[in-house]
Specification:
Layout lengths: L2 H11 L5 H20 L4 E3 L3 E8 L2 E4 L6 E4 L2 E8 L1 H9 L2
Antiparallel strand pairs: 1-2, 2-5, 3-4
Helix pairs in contact: 1-2
Family: Belongs to the bacterial histone-like protein family.
Protein name: Integration host factor subunit beta
GO molecular function, one term: DNA binding
Length: 94
Protein backbone atom coordinates (compact mmCIF):
# COMPACT_ATOMS: atom_id res chain seq x y z
CA UNK A 1 0.00 0.00 0.00
CA UNK A 2 1.26 3.46 -0.84
CA UNK A 3 0.45 6.74 0.88
CA UNK A 4 -2.26 7.77 -1.60
CA UNK A 5 -4.02 4.40 -1.19
CA UNK A 6 -3.95 4.84 2.59
CA UNK A 7 -5.48 8.31 2.26
CA UNK A 8 -8.25 6.99 -0.03
CA UNK A 9 -9.03 4.09 2.28
CA UNK A 10 -9.20 6.31 5.37
CA UNK A 11 -11.34 8.89 3.53
CA UNK A 12 -13.77 6.08 2.61
CA UNK A 13 -13.89 4.85 6.22
CA UNK A 14 -14.51 8.34 7.61
CA UNK A 15 -16.78 10.19 5.16
CA UNK A 16 -17.18 13.13 7.59
CA UNK A 17 -13.60 14.16 6.70
CA UNK A 18 -12.65 15.48 3.29
CA UNK A 19 -9.89 13.69 1.38
CA UNK A 20 -7.71 16.78 1.91
CA UNK A 21 -8.23 16.59 5.70
CA UNK A 22 -7.40 12.88 5.62
CA UNK A 23 -4.24 13.56 3.63
CA UNK A 24 -3.16 16.23 6.13
CA UNK A 25 -3.74 13.82 9.03
CA UNK A 26 -1.73 11.03 7.39
CA UNK A 27 1.11 13.44 6.58
CA UNK A 28 1.11 14.78 10.16
CA UNK A 29 1.31 11.28 11.63
CA UNK A 30 4.13 10.21 9.31
CA UNK A 31 6.02 13.46 9.98
CA UNK A 32 5.70 12.93 13.74
CA UNK A 33 7.00 9.37 13.42
CA UNK A 34 9.95 10.53 11.29
CA UNK A 35 10.85 13.36 13.67
CA UNK A 36 10.72 11.05 16.68
CA UNK A 37 13.08 8.55 15.05
CA UNK A 38 15.37 11.38 13.89
CA UNK A 39 15.71 12.46 17.55
CA UNK A 40 16.75 8.89 18.41
CA UNK A 41 13.60 8.05 20.36
CA UNK A 42 11.60 4.82 20.17
CA UNK A 43 7.98 4.57 18.97
CA UNK A 44 5.58 1.93 20.27
CA UNK A 45 2.09 1.44 18.86
CA UNK A 46 0.29 -1.15 20.99
CA UNK A 47 -1.07 -4.06 18.95
CA UNK A 48 0.91 -3.00 15.87
CA UNK A 49 4.60 -2.88 16.68
CA UNK A 50 7.52 -0.69 17.59
CA UNK A 51 9.99 1.38 15.64
CA UNK A 52 13.50 1.95 16.88
CA UNK A 53 17.01 2.56 15.68
CA UNK A 54 19.74 -0.02 15.22
CA UNK A 55 23.25 1.41 15.37
CA UNK A 56 25.87 0.05 13.01
CA UNK A 57 29.48 0.71 13.95
CA UNK A 58 32.05 1.97 11.45
CA UNK A 59 33.72 -0.73 9.40
CA UNK A 60 36.09 -1.27 6.53
CA UNK A 61 34.38 -2.20 3.28
CA UNK A 62 35.55 -2.76 -0.27
CA UNK A 63 34.89 -0.77 -3.41
CA UNK A 64 33.37 -3.45 -5.69
CA UNK A 65 34.74 -1.79 -8.82
CA UNK A 66 38.39 -1.43 -7.78
CA UNK A 67 38.65 -3.78 -4.78
CA UNK A 68 40.16 -0.91 -2.79
CA UNK A 69 39.42 -0.73 0.96
CA UNK A 70 37.04 2.05 1.99
CA UNK A 71 35.90 3.25 5.39
CA UNK A 72 32.14 2.93 5.91
CA UNK A 73 31.03 5.37 8.63
CA UNK A 74 28.79 4.49 11.59
CA UNK A 75 25.09 4.98 11.03
CA UNK A 76 21.68 4.53 12.62
CA UNK A 77 19.18 2.41 10.69
CA UNK A 78 15.39 2.39 11.37
CA UNK A 79 14.11 -0.98 12.55
CA UNK A 80 10.52 -2.23 12.89
CA UNK A 81 9.45 -5.05 15.16
CA UNK A 82 5.90 -6.33 14.71
CA UNK A 83 3.71 -6.70 17.79
CA UNK A 84 2.10 -9.96 18.83
CA UNK A 85 -1.37 -9.01 17.56
CA UNK A 86 -0.02 -8.03 14.13
CA UNK A 87 2.05 -11.21 13.84
CA UNK A 88 -0.98 -13.32 14.77
CA UNK A 89 -3.24 -11.50 12.30
CA UNK A 90 -0.74 -11.80 9.45
CA UNK A 91 -0.06 -15.46 10.20
CA UNK A 92 -3.77 -16.37 10.34
CA UNK A 93 -4.44 -14.54 7.06
CA UNK A 94 -2.41 -17.03 5.04
Amino acid sequence: MIRSELVKRLAALFPQFTPKDTELAVNAILEALSNTLAKGDRIEIRGFGSFGLTYRPPRTGRNPKTGEAALVPAKAVPHFRAGKELRTKVDSGR
